Amino acid sequence: MTWLVGGASFLLAASLAPMVGALATRWGIVDHVKERGRKVHRRTTPLMGGVAVLVATIMTVLIVLIRSDLLTSGRVTTAHYVGLLLAGCVLMIGGVLDDKYNLSPKIQLLFPVAAALVAIAGGLGIEKITNPFGGFVWFETVTWNLFALGPHMVAVSWPGDVFVFLWLLGMMFTVKLLDGLDGLATSIGSVGVLMVLLLAGTTAYFQPDVVVLSAIILGAFLGFLVWNVHPAQLFLGEGGALLVGFFLGALAIISGGKIATLLLVMGIPILDVAWVMFRRLRSGKDVSKGDRLHLHHRLYDFGLSQRQVVGLYTLLALGFGSLTLVLPSFAKLIALVCLMFFTLIGAYALLIVEGERR
Fold it and tell me: Which residues are listed as membrane-spanning (predicted)?
């Protein structure tokens, strides 16, 4: 049944994507060819691909909720799904407006902030994460009930909700900045969702509701990816990239704090973003402006094709992500340290080679 709903989501996203692309072209929501900057595509390409991902996810989730209890057989409630899907809609509204009207960075920020708050209001929260040195790190919370929406009480918890808020924003903006080559963000996002799905299906965790939700999101990602591989016929758009990061971050929380899993999958992009932000701040540049400093751009400029860069990133994400299925918590910490070390060494070597070529 899991793969059936995942397949349905895949078919929906793959079918909706060309229609969304045609609509984006008609509305003039397209990414034009640019010779400079961080864009590398060579033809005008429609945006709004995230709409196909979101609509496919919403439709499949609603059908499963109406016809079965697969999505509510564990700790995930209907309120969680309402919060997640409404948050996705907030992201897509903001993304489409940004793609069309090129909103200022301050206005852009309002939508992911609002989306994170909507998800938290829907009940997305965290009680604990695994301590790699043994036991758990508990988020001993103080909870304030705000108001009731039917049977659901909207509440704010400290410090758990603050952690969730910052985690969601971090994942959203990491994927947004990763979305620089055809299929890159969606491929890495798919690996992240797959790892959560596989981990939630093990006997140690066994979360059937999380497995089904992960299958739906994975199907939507892969259905869109059919149209996003190089040469891409449709881009995620600003809202779509944020949506991929949001779904990844939300899955890590809703599945019981699988933070290490996503950190291993997203380790290289996260380190890359941190390094680029540091360099921009040090040089006095606007951190919100895109450039070609990211590792995937450097690899592309070094001579690798888009498919080769995406393939390399995907293989590394699969390799490190797979470790979460077999390693205990402390070993995952060691793997994270090793990932950081080898990423820094690789980036340093690339800088040296670039300097010699100049």
Answer: 6-25, 46-66, 78-97, 109-126, 146-169, 181-204, 210-227, 234-253, 259-278, 309-327, 333-353
